[in-house]
Amino acid sequence: MVCEINYEHEESLSDFIKNLCEFENIDALFECVKTLKVEKSVEEIQKMDDLEMFEYFSRAEEKVRK
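Above: the chain sequence. Below: its structure as tokens.
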């Protein structure tokens, strides 16, 4: 799973929402973000690698399916 996010410029709210609408499993994405915000600080989240993030997302997918 590869997602491209460009942090070099600010994105308008409407563009951000449009990009989110392209994501196929938005419920799992939101569940993943909610879990991360509860369990980790912003600094810890920013230091996470793709594998760690994928593990959180996979758990969120399972939770949403139930």
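The mean pLDDT is 87.
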